[in-house]
Amino acid sequence: AFQGKEKFHKTVRFAQFYFIDSFILLCCGAEFHLLSFHLDTTKDDLKRYKQRSLCKLVQKFPMASTMEITSLSAVNDFYSYIVLTAGSNRALEVFDLNAGCSIAVIPEVHARSVHQICQNKGSSFSTQQPEAYNLFMTTAAGDGIKLWDLRTLR
């Protein structure tokens, strides 16, 4: 395990690898952080206690007008620039990390805060039409599941 010099002001709620394990995404309060990392796997008996693995902040992405991110989804299995976040304000926000900004906000996605976002990552057992990768689902306690299309945001 390794830790960067960055101290988080709130509890880290979600963390995952991103962009085919090139980065780490993690949520802290109303923002998510994009971190780069390097794991040093060399063995040196004389310097075995010296930490040489690195983790550094690339960019912070704040979610608009929310107190806390309640869910985050990003595909790691293939190159995708899209990151979806849901906040305590019941909104869903779409970020394009290639552009480095938020590209859409959908207010009042559910009657309660979204607690799960699931993007279509495909399957090694079947083929899909390319349009199927634009689909994602959200769910909130007591409000069922909703299927969304990134192209229309409906």
Question: Could you explain the architecture of this structure?
Answer:
By secondary structure, the protein is mainly beta. The protein has one domain (12-152): Methylamine Dehydrogenase, Chain H (7 Propeller). Helix content is 0%, strand content 45%. The strands form three sheets. It has a four-stranded antiparallel beta sheet with strand order 1-2-3-4, with no helix packed on it. The chain is globular, with a radius of gyration of 17 Å. It starts with 11 loop residues before the first strand and ends in a 5-residue tail after the last strand.
In percent terms, what proportion of residues is strand? over 45%
- The global form is globular
Low-confidence stretches: none
Overall structural class, as computed from helix and strand content, comes to: mainly beta
What is the count of helical runs? 0
Could you give the count of β-strands? 11
- Taking all Cα atoms into account, the compactness measure Rg is 17 Å
- Order of the strands making up the biggest sheet: 1-2-3-4
Give the terminus-to-terminus CA distance. 41 Å
User: Main beta sheet, described?
Assistant: 4 strands, antiparallel
Q: Average pLDDT value?
A: 90
- Assigned CATH architecture: 7 Propeller
Percentage of residues assigned to helices = under 10%
What sequence of helices (H) and strands (E) makes up the elements?
EEEEEEEEEEE
CATH class: Mainly Beta
CATH homologous superfamily caption: YVTN repeat-like/Quinoprotein amine dehydrogenase
**Structural domain count:** 1
CATH topology: Methylamine Dehydrogenase, Chain H
Protein name: WD repeat-containing protein 27
